[in-house]
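Meet my pick.
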Amino acid sequence: MHRYRSHTCGALRDSDIGQSVRLSGWCHRIRDHGGVLFIDLRDHYGLTQCVADPDSPAFKDAEKLRSEWVVRMDGKLRRRPGGTENPDLPTGAVELYVSEIEVLGPAGELPLPVFGEQEYPEDIRLKFRFLDLRREKLHQNIMTRGAIVDSMRKRMKEQGFFEFQTPILTASSPEGARDFLVPSRIHPGKFYALPQAPQQYKQLLMMSGFDRYFQIAPCFRDEDPRADRLPGEFYQLDLEMSFVEQNDVFAAVEPVITGVFEEFAKGKPVTKSWPRIPFAEALRKYGSDKPDLRNPILMQDVSEHFRGSGFKVFARMLEDPKNQVWAIPGVGGGSRAFCDRMNSWAQGEGQPGLGYIMWREGGEGAGPLANNIGPERTAAIRAALGLKEGDAAFFVAGDPEKFWKFSGLARTKLGEELNLIDKERFELAWIVDFPMYEYNEEDKKVDFSHNPFSMPQGGLDALNGQDPLTIKAFQYDITCNGYEIASGGIRNHRPEAMVKAFEIAGYGEKDVVERFGGMYRAFQYGAPPHGGMAAGVDRIVMLLCGTTNLREISLFPMNQQAMDLLMGAPSEATTKQLRELHIRTNLPAK
């Protein structure tokens, strides 16, 4: 017999009854039932109930066992007594009657429990992550992650993509976040950067004639952490294609993402035909460029019903042509208590309040706004929004550029409070026609709004002759249930157009050559039209595992302060290390 096991703890069935069996694993749970000891033995594959009674030669050893001790157990497999079977367990019809126990690894007092899924402080969970990962839900999430990545890889290859690995040590690049820098010992005073994304390399692969590339790529960004973004590093399904237009990318990617979601959705419906929503329309209807389409609320511009009305606050605002009034319908929200609660919530979000109209029995509009604008306008608003008795509408007014984010928060809040969101489905969509540029208020300049390497709609002519803030780009995102899960674009592959695009954002040709020299040179020697995208592996896994925290689907994540509590990173370098790198620290005064 093998030194440690003849079977795994998830393998034994009725057909094995009567066999001599050897198992090794962790003592998951130990129960004393009137002097008979029941030990649930756990390994990666499952759980087997093991029994030692006073007649067993192993009973005295069994009495010494504690939670999470690693042991080897020998014994005979038998059927569980009638009425004690566990139908929820694959091994639930059998048990091991133990004849011998060997302790392979005793455990000290546990800093957190492994049995059960109770909440525990995150810092303790991360410091003792090796224990945390033994817990059933987290362990299963990690295995699901691996299966999802396998599925992505298989589906990409079926679509004709080839897998490549791009460098990790590279040059700094403006991808929208801070780089992690790596000092060079051989070249004093110079630094490598960890890639924020393989953007330039994948485009260079297209210059090199490889046609269809993909990679499960590690990316590194020195960003502030939050629940849906891991600090430091994350993984993306990165891809690029040559001789394609936007629709070709969509046709290649949709089956991959839809297929992965359908495979791991556990029967929840997944969007079959993805809508394509222009960026401006997404802001207008949903108040978000990553709308949750499970929420049925659609916002509407109702400015015409307030223009010149008796509600002077809105009427005066609308004298400025850039201002608008948007309505957010609230089906079932037509009570004074609910409307007042929404108004208080808005004030908590830093707003002056949230105007509302509620429709009571008989169809009469009620509330301060209804009283000010009169029954005719109130009825027109109700008709425009398709509302009925017992419903309400909430209003946001001003410059949409400034209030669209808040209106999106209000839409989400209403959907949640009124239970309008169908949580048991996955709604996927393309967001298209992103603006190429935006105005950076902080630096008082025009800046790239998305990916600087994207092709402007209208090409060089648009860059030369159009107001930059009106230029749209061949850029697109995939959204799912309120999260952006992928982003990409058709690339600007003409050197003169690339230089012009960067000039508009304040970079000269010298800057372009200096910062993107490899790609700029490659464009001079026959560049194919190309495009692609990157899908966030971590966010996709998070959605499919039914959690809202990326730390629940990652092996060894950092905490909210971007610290690895298990390994003690970041840590100070030794004087010798710093001397070899020609670096002296200049710490801020405490």
Remarks:
- The first strand starts at residue 20 and ends at 33.
- Residues 189 and 582 are 7 Å apart (CA to CA).
